[in-house]
Amino acid sequence: MFFIYVLKFNKDKKFYTGYTKNLKLRLEQHQKGMVDSTKNRGEFKIIYFEGCINQQDATHREKYLKTYLGKMFLKNRLKSYLTG
Description:
By secondary structure, this protein is of the alpha+beta class.
């Protein structure tokens, strides 16, 4: 199983979307600054994740969530969280 996840960074309030086979390990890597694209962005919260059966589905879903329509999906899905 593969997981797609979205992080929200406290510092700049921006999002990071990724996928992984081991969600717990990947979050630890983010926390320890081992991921180049997020190592200088500070603390974060995981605000969304979902599972996929295989890697191909996960990569397609990740790419979708990075598009305008995917961001709108997340905004609608997390409406109560994002508006406070």
